[in-house]
Write a structure and sequence with these properties.
The chain has one domain: Aminopeptidase (3-Layer(aba) Sandwich). The protein is built from 5 helices and 7 strands; from the N terminus they run E-H-H-H-E-E-E-H-E-H-E-E. Strand 4, helix 4 and strand 5 form a beta-alpha-beta unit. The longest helix is centred in the N-terminal third of the chain and has 16 residues. The relative contact order is 0.16.
């Protein structure tokens, strides 16, 4: 009997094309209709395989989740960029291919990213998400995050609310 497992591991240069594809497909699924079309396309155009390869080679903290030998999601993480949140770590991005959402892979990569931040000595973590991204908000609330702050981000003149969740 074969057992198929999910593995979370640091991203490598060989993952660049998969990271670009996951980024594009997950962002189109999450943000089409929320972020103006032109702004979304420009943001996606900046994150091609070359961008990901360079990020990984320059030691950006990127982890990949693999299932059955295929990269299906990623998280990027590092130092908290918002000192007012009073935590040291931040998960900047956490995305899965749409067909792998809702079955536990998000929890697995989130926990791995949180553990990696703790191993780096960072206490607590923050995650920001757009307030209109209800699936992400439900996910972070389900993971025990506390909705602690609001901010905003503008996309082609459209100002959108974002919410910060923290884990102390």
């Amino acid at each position: 009997m074969n057992t198929i497992v999910a593995e979370v591991r640091p991203a490598e240069s060989k993952d660049a094309a998969a990271l670009a594809a996951i980024h594009e497909l997950s962002w189109r699924s999450a943000y089409s209709g929320l972020i103006p079309h032109g702004a979304l396309n420009r943001m996606l155009g900046r994150r091609d395989a070359g961008w990901w390869d360079k990020a990984v080679r320059h030691r950006a903290a990127v982890v990949v989740i693999e299932f059955d030998g295929r990269a299906i999601g990623y998280a990027t993480l590092g130092l908290n960029r918002t000192p007012a949140l009073k935590v040291e770590g931040e998960i900047y991005e956490l995305y899965l291919l749409p067909e792998f959402q809702g079955v536990g892979f998000g929890r697995r990569i989130f926990e791995s990213a949180r553990d990696m931040l703790a191993l780096r000595g960072l206490k607590g973590l923050a995650v920001w998400t757009l307030a209109e991204n209800q699936p992400a908000m439900r996910f972070y609330e389900g993971m025990g995050g506390t909705d602690i702050a609001e901010g905003s981000e503008a996309f082609d003149g459209r100002v959108m609310r974002k919410i910060a969740y923290v884990w102390r």
